[in-house]
Design goal:
By secondary structure, this protein is of the alpha/beta class. The protein contains 13 helices and 17 strands. The strands form 4 sheets. Strands 4-12-11-10-7-5-6 form a 7-stranded mixed beta sheet, sandwiched between helices. A 4-stranded mixed beta sheet has the order 1-2-3-15. A 4-stranded antiparallel beta sheet has the order 13-14-17-16, with helices on one face. The chain binds pyridoxal-5'-phosphate.
Length: about 400
C-alpha cells in the first residue's frame, strides 16, 4: 500500500469513529511473532502486545488453526444450550486458576461488572441489606462502564460521568491501615489489582495482600482480585496472586485469555461460587464456542510451551536492561514491576518518548502520568530485549 492509501484509511476512521482515542498516525496491517508491520511495510518491535494481550505473539500457527477449526464448526449458539468448548474452557480455567466456578464475559470490564454484582448478591444473602459498600484502591483501573468506572480510583476518568454508583470507598494501595479505616458493618468486599497496571505498574506488597486476606476472613468480606492485566503468566506465575501464598474469593481475568479474541471471565471460590442463580446475570455472547476455543487453546499452550518457566528465565534479562537505563539516564528515575509487566518512571513526557520510539520501530505504552510500560509478548527472548534497549537508547539520547 502507498502513503495515500494509508492516509485515506486514517481519514476514513477519523470521519466515522467517535473520537475517544488519539491514535498514532500508523495503520497496522499484520503481525508475525513479536513484530508488527504497517501498511507501508515498516516493521515494529512490539513491547505493548495489544495492551498485555498477546502471550504467544502474532500469527501463531497452532493458535490460528485451533480457531479456524472452531470457526468452521460453530461460532455462536446462545447460552441456552451447552457446547463442548464452553465446558472444556470452564474446566481448564477453574482447574488452573484455583477457583471453583467461572462466568465468561466478552471483556475485562464486563468481568468486573459481574464480580461487582456477585459481591452485592453475596452481601444481600448474608444479611439482607441493600446498601453494601465495597473498598477499592486509589490509582486503580477496572474499566469504563458505570460499575467498573465507579471502582476506578481516578477522578479524571469519572468526573464527567457522575453520579457514580454509591457505596464505593477508596483506600490507598499498599496501605493496610487505610483499608482497615474504611471497613464498617456495610462493607462486603475489597477489590484490587494484584499488580496495578494502568495506574503506573505497582505490585502489591506481600504484607498488604496478606493483611487484606486476613481482614476479609475476619469480617466475612470477599477479596476480589482483578488479574485482567497481570494474570495468565504475565508476572511469572499463572496468576499473580499465586506468588503471595493467599487466594482470592473472586478473581477477574481477560486480556491474554483469548489472545486477541474478545473474552474475559469472573471466577469465584467457596461460598462465593454459588451466589448467582438463574436470572441474576447473563450475556448473549459470553463464552460462546469461538471465544471458548480460544480460551482452551490459550491454556493448553501455556502448559505445552512451559510459558511460566520462560517468563521466569527472561524476566531478569528485561529487569537488567531496564535497570541499566535507570543508571544511564538522569531522567529515568526508577524501575518497578513483576515479571514481564514492568515500568520505568521518567521525568520527560512519556508521550514524547513513545512517539519517538515509534519512529525507531518500537511500540511502547505509558501507564499513569510518568511511567513507560513494558508488557511484551511473553515469548520474547534475549535478542528482543537487546533490540528494544538499543532502540530506546537512541530515543533517550535525543532528549
Ligand atoms: C484492561 C483492564 C480492565 C478492562 O478490561 P477491558 O477488556 O478493556 O474491558 C480492567 N482491569 C484491569 C486491571 C485492566 O488492565
Amino acid at each position: 500500500m502507498n502513503a495515500t492509501d494509508t492516509a485515506a484509511i486514517m481519514q476514513m476512521a477519523e470521519e466515522h469513529i467517535i473520537h475517544t482515542y488519539n491514535r498514532y498516525p500508523i495503520v497496522l496491517d499484520h503481525g508475525e511473532g513479536v513484530y508488527l508491520y504497517d501498511t507501508e511495510g515498516k516493521k515494529y518491535l512490539d513491547f505493548g502486545a495489544g495492551i498485555a494481550v498477546y502471550a504467544f505473539g502474532y500469527n501463531n500457527k497452532e493458535f490460528n488453526d485451533a480457531l479456524k477449526n472452531q470457526l468452521d464448526k460453530l461460532i455462536h449458539t446462545s447460552n441456552y444450550f451447552y457446547n463442548e468448548p464452553m465446558a472444556e474452557a470452564a474446566k481448564k480455567l477453574t482447574e488452573c486458576s484455583g477457583m471453583d466456578k467461572v462466568f465468561f464475559t466478552n471483556s475485562g470490564t464486563e468481568a468486573i461488572e459481574g464480580a461487582l454484582k456477585l459481591a452485592k448478591k453475596y452481601g444481600y444473602e448474608k444479611d439482607g441489606r441493600t446498601d453494601h459498600e465495597i473498598i477499592a484502591m486509589g490509582h486503580s483501573f477496572h474499566g469504563r462502564s458505570m460499575g467498573a468506572l465507579a471502582l476506578t480510583g481516578n477522578k479524571h476518568y469519572q468526573e464527567a460521568f457522575g453520579p457514580m454508583i454509591p457505596g464505593i470507598r477508596f483506600a490507598d494501595y499498599n496501605d493496610l491501615e487505610s483499608v482497615k479505616n474504611l471497613v464498617n458493618d456495610k462493607t462486603i468486599a475489597v477489590i484490587l489489582e494484584t499488580v496495578q497496571g494502568e495506574g503506573g505498574i505497582y505490585p502489591a506488597d506481600q504484607k498488604f495482600l496478606e493483611g487484606i486476606r486476613t481482614l476479609c476472613d475476619e469480617r466475612g468480606m470477599l477479596l476480589i482480585l482483578d488479574e485482567i492485566q497481570c494474570g495468565l503468566c504475565r508476572t511469572g506465575s499463572l496468576y499473580a496472586y499465586m506468588q503471595y501464598g493467599i487466594i482470592p474469593d473472586v478473581m477477574t481475568t481477560a486480556k491474554a485469555l483469548g489472545q486477541g479474541v474478545p473474552v474475559g471471565a469472573f471466577m469465584a471460590r467457596g461460598k462465593a461460587a454459588d451466589v448467582l442463580v438463574p436470572g441474576d446475570h447473563g450475556s448473549t455472547y459470553g463464552g460462546n464456542p469461538f471465544a471458548a476455543a480460544a480460551v482452551c487453546k490459550t491454556i493448553d499452550m501455556i502448559e505445552s510451551e512451559k510459558l511460566t518457566d520462560h517468563v521466569n528465565e527472561i524476566t531478569p534479562v528485561l529487569e537488567k536492561a531496564l535497570d541499566e537505563l535507570v543508571e544511564a539516564y538522569d531522567f529515568v528515575k526508577a524501575r518497578r514491576g513483576k515479571g514481564l509487566m514492568q515500568g520505568i518512571v521518567v521525568t520527560v513526557p512519556p508521550a514524547e518518548v513513545i512517539k519517538k520510539a515509534l519512529e525507531e520501530g518500537l511500540i511502547l505504552f505509558s501507564a499513569g502520568a510518568d511511567v513507560i510500560r513494558f508488557v511484551p509478548p511473553l515469548i520474547i527472548n534475549e535478542s528482543h530485549v537487546t533490540e528494544m534497549k538499543d532502540k530506546l537508547c537512541k530515543v533517550f539520547n535525543a532528549f
